[in-house]
Amino acid sequence: MAIAGDSTIPETGTMVAETELAAGAMGLGSVVAQAITHVAPAMGFLTGATFIATYAGTAVPLAYIGAFLVCLSIGLSLVQLAKHLPSAGGYFTYVSRTLHPRLGFMTAWLYFLYDPTVLALNLAIVGVIFEQTLQVRAGIFFPWWATVAIGTAAVIAVIYRGVQISGKLMIVMAGIEIAMLLLFALSGIANPGPGGVSMIPFQVDPAYPIDKLMVGVVFAIFAFTGFEAVAPMAEETENPRRNIPRAVVISLGLMGLFYVIATFGLVIGWGTDTFDETFAGQGVSVFMDLSVRLFGGWGWIILFLAILNSVIAVGISGSNAATRVWFSMGRAGALPKGLAKVHPVYKTPTNAIILYAVVTLVLAYGGSWLFGSVIAPVESGFAPDTLFFWGGLAITLGLIGVYGLGSLGVIRYYWRERRDEFNWFWHFVIPVISILAILVVGYFSLQGLAAPYLFVPFFVAGWIILGAIILLVARARGKETWLLKAGEVAYERQARPEEVAGSI
Questions:
Q1: What are phi and psi of 4, to 5 degrees?
Q2: Three-class DSSP category at 198
Q3: Of 134, 389, 421, 496, which is the most buried if we count CB atoms within 10 A?
């Protein structure tokens, strides 16, 4: 593969990366779908809205709007790097190139708390939702562990066969997921609960002070994370310098609009007069109850299918992103070189995919057992729901480092290396806003934690220390040749017709 430290190749026609992966297999539509499915709108809505309502009350839409603005500032910073540094390494490459390779490694190390765990965490919580929903509403017992096993097998089969297949599938699944939830939300507006249709959801709830609403904003941010998952797909995207930035902005805009409509329809459909007392803090079952009121006795199936669609879609997009980062780090030598092995036909990183499957199963089963039997024992001995929320908080804290270092990289990169392009608003004000915003997120994330979540900050701190130890050992043993390659990005060339013939 030909790579370079940086390049500014003018686009004439369709440009693709010079890579061992499937160059040009993803068009703009597939990349946007990669971001949207990784955001997992159904999961972000159905697992987050009741929890966020405990801090925001009827102002749930306001909390999502605040979260959107924070994530937009982060996304606009990401755009500034993506348009010049296309690479499967994503933030690993960005931070290595703009700050230092060791900081790039630490960024990727924090990122390992995210995409490598996303399938396990989501399958764990969905397994619980499925088990409870099917048993209560259909009299069928379907154990949570079976959902994990079947879901993992389905996702691995898709991503192993090639990014073009997974890209097209994500477009379909993103459309289905959003359509189902918009139908739910619009039906809520058309058939309002007690209180009728009003603008109350866009006003601060008198029962919840501003500081509590801010905590709601913090937790709503987790519902938007995932837009950055387009970055590691750069080497398989046609015109990556153009399409990756566009995908970030488009996906964030669509998700912002979606969440506002969905949460407004939810609050109105449930009823603003009773929302605080009967909805906030409840489980997914209350969504099912509302769906039954809106669509009849079997209306819960609409949301059930939306969740199923969402967990498979986020699994595909998350595993795509994680395996490409591992591939890039293996290629550079920052991780074992075996992770850079590519399938001769499908052009997928086979060893990285196998590792992803192993991590998913070990984390889902082992983590659920650890929380259910050791940390916070429950009768069954397994606590996949605790694993999900514990992991979600760890991811939030880890992403503070990822996003923060990326934003710092924007400032340094444009000030020192692209001074002729430097713009005070885009390359200083926006990154500073994103840094300050995520620091506020970190502060509120640590407030009022109780066991077992009280231990999450210590776990993340230990994870950072472990990453630093790995770097120190590599330095002591003289195994740091990867430092020279960590910030290299892919050359671009004119695409051959067959490379982009099937891209969407």
A1: -145, 160
A2: coil
A3: 389
15 bridge partner residues: 494
3-state secondary structure of 387: helix
What would the two tokens of residue 325 be?
A: 């980062």
User: What does 451-474 look like in DSSP terms, one character per residue?
Assistant: TTGGGHHHHHHHHHHHHHHHHHHH
Q: Indicate the pLDDT class of residue 1, thresholds 50, 70 and 90.
A: very low
In sequence order, what are the residues at sequence separation of 6 or more whose Cβ sits closer than 8 angstroms to the Cβ of residue 151?
119, 123, 126, 311, 312, 315
Hey, which CATH number is domain 29-479, 1.20.1740.10, 3.40.50.150, 3.40.50.300, 3.50.30.10?
A: 1.20.1740.10
User: Residue 106 — φ and ψ, nearest 5°?
Assistant: -65, -35
Confidence tier at 448 by pLDDT (50, 70, 90)? confident
> CB-based contacts of 31: which residues, under 8 Å, 6+ apart?
167, 230, 233, 237, 243, 244, 247
Residue whose entry in the numeric block shows the structure tokens 């409840």: 282
Q: Amino acid letter at 428?
A: F
Residue 179 gets the label, from left (phi > 0), alpha (psi -120 to 50) or beta, of alpha
- Residue 232 CA to residue 92 CA, distance in Å, equals 9
CA distances from 163 to 155, 174, 328, 348 (A): 12, 16, 16, 7
Query: Tens digits of per-residue pLDDT, 313-348?
Result: 999 999 999 999 999 999 999 999 999 999 999 999
* pLDDT digits 0-9 by tens, 98-110: 999 999 999 999 9
Token pair in block for residue 265 = 């329809």
If phi > 0 it is left, if psi is from -120 to 50 it is alpha, else beta; for residue 24 that is: left
Angstrom distance (rounded) from CA 174 to CA 503: 17
Neighbours of 186 (CB within 10 A): 16
Q: Helix H segments across 112-239?
A: 115-138, 144-161, 163-190, 210-221
